[in-house]
Amino acid sequence: DARVTQTPRHKVTEMGQEVTMRCQPILGHNTVFWYRQTMMQGLELLAYFRNRAPLDDSGMPKDRFSAEMPDATLATLKIQPSEPRDSAVYFCASRQGWNQPQHFGDGTRLSIL
Amino acid sequence: DQQVKQNSPSLSVQEGRISILNCDYTNSMFDYFLWYKKYPAEGPTFLISISSIKDKNEDGRFTVFLNKSAKHLSLHIVPSQPGDSAVYFCAANSGGSNYKLTFGKGTLLTVNP
Question: Which residues of B touch A42 (CB under 8 A)?
């Protein structure tokens, strides 16, 4: 089965450091999503792209978060500078078209000390 | 404002019995609903979906029921198996050009042998 691949699976770093998370969507999927999961908020949508173009990033703190799709096989989520409140699990998902289910990667567990 | 609510944080059932997970929503524009299952340290996995033009969809042991007038959906698992123990998320989409999924906070199902 095709899967969404996320790297790294775990990241521990100190406050103020830059963090980059990567996602390889399923081949042929034209929509990519970034989510953050915390105990308090559950799964929150941060941003999503269709055909590599950003459609909505209203869920992201604009001053420190950025999301890009350099090509169809790679999506990145960057945090600079990172803060302890950014500690969470970040999921990437991809989908082939609207009203198709999103397929999730296994996430990046981020800890900011 | 939580548009998708799963009011039971946890549910425990005996193996072989029926598991019923519930979900309520407030946005009448939602027209496509999904259930995801999540194991620890993995991403959510798509389980089953239903369009608002239907009131029931079945896939093996899993059946989703939709009551549009009550803005309520439920997932029935019959018979429940220990391997079904996971967190179940309800999600909703308003379709059209809106690619967003809104997730509930999840229900932890434990199936006891």
Answer: 103-106
